[in-house]
Amino acid sequence: MEELKKKVKQALEEGKIHGFLGLKADEGDISPFFMTKDNIAELEKLTAPDGRYSLGKILSRIAAQNPGKAIGVMVRGCDERAIIELTKASQLGTASTVQFGVACTPQTAEKCNCPQPYPSTIDFGEKAKSVNHGELLTKLEQMSVEDRLAYWMAQFDKCIKCYGCRNICPVCYCQECTLEDKNLVPGGIVPPATPVFHFIKAMHMADRCIDCGLCEATCPSNIPLRTIYRHMRKVMQELFDYVPGRAADDKSPLGTLEEGGRLIH
Amino acid sequence: MSADNGFEPTIIGFLCNWCSYAGADLAGGSRKKYAANVLPIRVMCSGTVSPHHIVKAFQMGADGVLVTGCHIGECHYMKGNYMTAKRIPVVKELLGFIGISPDRLMLDWVSASEGEKFARVVTEFSDKIRSLGPSPLKGRVHGRVKEESQASA
């Protein structure tokens, strides 16, 4: 960690980065923090804890406030994938990022069920093995359509429409959210219009989900949201060989008029 | 007309303005007989049919959704129907995973001169939906089965 702190400090002092976004431990609490050269002492609190924050989402806000500047950011595997998706969607504006890679511990990887718990360049930590528990997905895929409907309806019925899954999602960036469209999801009713509410979210996740699992971790009703999004990732890979968060110059087949992919008929 | 205890499906048809709607017009104009189960909605391009519209149709009680557009390469907007061709298979997969049979959604291309094909597509799709039975979302209020929500109220 000391080495990473030194690297960040050096980059700040040399003016390579305008500011740095990371996670800090403050009296036992973990929180995201943004610092510039003016409050360099903050850097001492930098840590790579078990807990996570949607750093990509915070970064897009900071980028909007600092156009044209280089911003240093601590990235895990999931943060890196999120930043790739946000770059594709022009959500970082003219700001550029300098990434400081942190590899997750095997414990964190296991807890997050993370298929890629490390970024492409690692400045701190050791590469942990990828984890891929997909028992529920396999079970659901083998079920009959009727059983699946019963399963999901029971799950969606638990939804309290807190919008937690959307708010935490690092790649949900729209200013106007379809989930708040009164024509599709009437207000004042809990659970929200099923399955429309979750269908819309899943459809939007199909070409964006970076499989960080924050939605499921946040959900107060324990709806296995990640399983739907994982299925959609799989579908996108099978149909179009498209994996969100893989490379910044990939284009989503659903968002472009290009040919390619599997055209039916 | 049907043998399955009189069930007549309600099908929402999204027809593109330039090809399929004209195709439907031709089918009518040339007095072709076809199933009257499709309620047509004219859209400017099949590429504008959002997945939201499709799922909303199902939620409001549609037994099936039919999307028709110009043939690939003949789109009035050049490549609008490429969007449709890529999007519909994904929507089908999601419908299937959530528990609505993907057979309830159908995409086909009907040009303005294919009145005959339009009649055939509509009749075949209506027969298919008739054999699948009513939509499992029918009779649910916001996902719950009506009787249950009344009992708990």
Task: Walk me through the structure.
The complex is a heterodimer of chains A (265) and B (153). Chain A is α/β, with parallel strands linked by helices and 265 residues long. Chain A has two domains: 2-112, Creatine Amidinohydrolase, Chain A, domain 1, CATH 3.40.350; 135-240. Helix content of chain A is 37%, strand content 11%. Chain A is built from ten helices and four strands; from the N terminus they run H-E-E-H-E-H-E-H-H-H-H-H-H-H. Chain A has helices at residues 2-13, 55-65, 77-88, 106-112, 135-142, 145-156, 164-168, 196-205, 214-218, 225-240; strands at residues 19-26, 29-36, 70-75, 96-101. In chain A, strands 2-1-3-4 form a four-stranded mixed beta sheet, with helices on both faces. In chain A, helix 2 (55-65) packs across helix 3 (77-88). Chain A is globular and about 60 Å long. Chain B is α/β, with parallel strands linked by helices and 153 residues long. Chain B has a single domain (11-145), classed as 3-Layer(aba) Sandwich (Rossmann fold), CATH 3.40.50. Helix content of chain B is 41%, strand content 18%. Chain B has five helices and six strands, in the order E-H-E-H-E-H-E-H-E-E-H. Chain B has a four-stranded parallel beta sheet, sandwiched between helices. Chain B has a two-stranded antiparallel sheet with strand order 5-6. Chains A and B meet through helix 6, helix 8 and helix 10 of A and helix 2, helix 3 and strand 4 of B.
CATH uppermost class of the largest domain in chain A: Alpha Beta
Helix coverage percent of chain A: 25-40%
Which CATH architecture of the largest domain in chain A would you pick? Answer: 3-Layer(aba) Sandwich
Radius of gyration of chain B equals 16 Å
Number of distinct helices of chain A: 10
Total beta-strand segments of chain B: 6
Task: Please state the overall shape of chain B, judged from the principal axes of the Cα atoms.
Answer: globular
Cα radius of gyration of chain A in angstroms: 20 Å
Span between termini of chain A? 56 Å
Largest interface: A-B, 47 and 36 residues
Strand order of the largest sheet of chain B: 2-1-3-4
Strand segment count of chain A: 4
Number of helices of chain B: 5
